[in-house]
Amino acid sequence: ILVDGNFIHAAIGSNLADLDKHLGNLLGARVKLYVTRCITHELQALGPDVAQALAAGRRYELHKCGHERGECTAADCFKEQIGLHNPEHWMVATQDLALRGHLEGIPACPIIFSTINGIHLHEPPAMARSTAKQATAVNQTLPMHELASEALKDLGSLHKGIHTNVKFRRNKAKGANPLSMMKKKKKDTSQPSTGQEQDSSGQQPKSEQQPKSDQQPKSEHSEQQQEPQQDKGKKRKRARSNGTTGTDSVAPSQAHGQPTSDI
């Protein structure tokens, strides 16, 4: 990368003095920075205001431009090094707007500049984009001797005879789910509920509560009272059939006046 003196001064003013690191991060690779004698002579002529830029420029590699001191300006020196087609594939880092406008007309010459927000790579001009597109198209096309081969001629004839009725269906955007668009039904609170009513505590009313286990229904109690009366009636019938009552029955030995023996 050919580095201009005003670019070095602007980078130092933006706290970007370590240009090797920042330009490497920008381009994603290791970089080598070069200056020419015309750049160092120009920085020396500007005085002590650019002393830091001069000291930083002397740490970079020196490219021999072949110019003597004061023979040409730094911008003219860069134009001569780049030429019309940039045969040595230089990248130029400069703040000079006139020099950047001249370099935009050269297809293969990337431009780097600095702002207060950092270091940026200039967008390729329309000429550079069209040249790159043409070069890509030339690389992708086959040469004439390959296109004239018999194998490619047979392949072209095969493509002409192939017919198909296959139609590819494109996925269309679907609408919303109709079920999700339905309105919610409102609950009817005017009619009473058909289920069993419950009080606020969640218990059934007293009238519908089940009887306790120790309390028996009236029907069962009446049946238990009737059972001993039926047994008494049966005993009386048996006593009458024998000629005695159930309560005033006398032993046969006492009836004939015979004494009873004590047991």
Percent of residues in beta strands: 5-15%
* Integer average pLDDT: 75
- SSE topology string: EHHEHHEHEHEEHHHHH
Approximate helicity band: 40-55%
Please summarize the sheet with the most strands. 4 strands, mixed
> How widely separated are the two ends?
148 Å
Oligomer: single chain
Sheet/helix structural class: alpha/beta
The tally of beta strands, per DSSP, is: 6
Q: What overall form do the CA principal axes indicate? A: elongated
User: Major sheet: order of its strands?
Assistant: 1-4-5-6
Number of DSSP helical runs: 11
Sequence stretches where pLDDT stays below 50 over 5 or more residues: 195-201, 211-216, 244-263
Q: Please tell me how large the radius of gyration is.
A: 59 Å
Descriptive account of the structure:
The chain has 263 residues and is α/β, with parallel strands linked by helices. The longest helix has 24 residues, at 218-241. The protein is elongated, with a radius of gyration of 59 Å. The chain is 42% helix and 7% strand. A 4-stranded mixed sheet has the order 1-4-5-6. Strands 2-3 form a two-stranded parallel sheet.
Offer a few descriptive terms:
disordered C terminus, 7% strand, 11 helices, alpha/beta, 263 residues
Short overview:
The chain has 263 residues and is α/β, with parallel strands linked by helices.
Secondary-structure blueprint:
Blueprint lengths: L1 E2 L1 H9 L5 H9 L6 E3 H10 L4 H8 L2 E3 L10 H9 L9 E2 L3 H7 L7 E5 L2 E4 L4 H15 L3 H4 L2 H11 L57 H24 L10 H4 L8
Parallel strand pairs: 1-4, 2-3, 4-5
Antiparallel strand pairs: 5-6
